[in-house]
Amino acid sequence: MEGEGGLMRVLIDNRWDADTGIGKLYREVMARMPAHISPAFVQSRMGLGNLLTPWMLAREIGQQRRADVFYSPSFMPPLHSPIPVVFTIHDLMHLFYYTPWHRLYYRQVIARLAAKADRVITVSHFSKGQLVDLLGIDERSITVVYNGVDDRYRMNKDAYENNEPYFLYVGNRRKNKNLPAMLEAFARAAIPRDFQFFLTGAGDRETLALIERLGIGKRVRFLGHVPEERLPALYRGAQATLFVSLMEGFGLPVIESMAAGTPVLTSTAGPLPEVAGDAALCVDPHDVAAISGGIEVLANDSGRHQQLRQAGLSRAAQFTWDNTAAQTWAVITEAPSR
User: Fold this and answer.
1) Which residues, 6 or more positions from 163, have their beta carbon under 8 angstroms from its beta carbon?
2) Model pTM?
3) Structural domain boundaries of the chain?
4) pLDDT tens-digit profile of 81-136?
5) 4-148+321-333 topology per CATH
6) CA–CA distance, 153 with 316 (Å, rounded to integer)
7) Out of 67, 132, 160, 221, which could bridge 11 as a Cys pair, Cβ 3.0 to 4.6 Å?
């Protein structure tokens, strides 16, 4: 589909250009925009996640009468559209780990609008299965496009220096992240007591209380906000990355850590085995003893540690933003005309 002069006019929801995972995807895709794309951008600055977003986007599309297709890097589609709609649903976390109101809105509004989209992009085959089974979206309209990992993780040679060895967790404190189980497993693990557990972000009341009960207050460190440019060295300096979630859409820290040359302990749940392949230790996220066992392997078995390091480097090389962007633009430009 091309407009005048061979250019395709794409209206893009650029409100997602922020310091988030979705913002990272947006910037990487936009940085690799094909030459035949003529972009226009949503003018509204309505807050992300605002319940009125579908109405706002429909109005914006109506005002941009010359656009050929609409694209959003996230889960809010327009209420209606005279032009093809392409958008990304990263996961269905709202149906499991948010409020009953979130679940109702997702099922009654987002699911119904998603079913009308010309193309839906998602980030794993696991998420595609959920979109089909839980939202009833036609699988023929869904394309899986994996996330990529920045070259800075592969190219970096610096490692964060710490007097004691440390495990690393990169992420937020939402329930699906399963952080209490990882902390308990770390406390139980038969590893040298000088091992520490580093976590990005700040300590919340519940997490701090759990750490106190487990008696590991001196072994856990909260790093606060870590800018992305500091993450490669932080990963590289770690003994291993712990990312044993209950559910994800993709699980970007898994391949970031692998690209940095650091082994990963992750989960058998959701898309994480799909993303990790055979290059990580995968354990039952509901089994604290299994998580402890994985931590012990990564701390005590140098041969296994080295094998996972090499396997991770090879696995991470398969995930590039060049591939992600090329596949995303292919979906956008091939959306059927209405």
Assistant:
1) none
2) 0.92
3) 4-148+321-333, 151-316
4) 999 999 999 998 888 888 888 888 888 888 888 888 999 999 999 999 999 998 88
5) Rossmann fold (3.40.50)
6) 10
7) 67
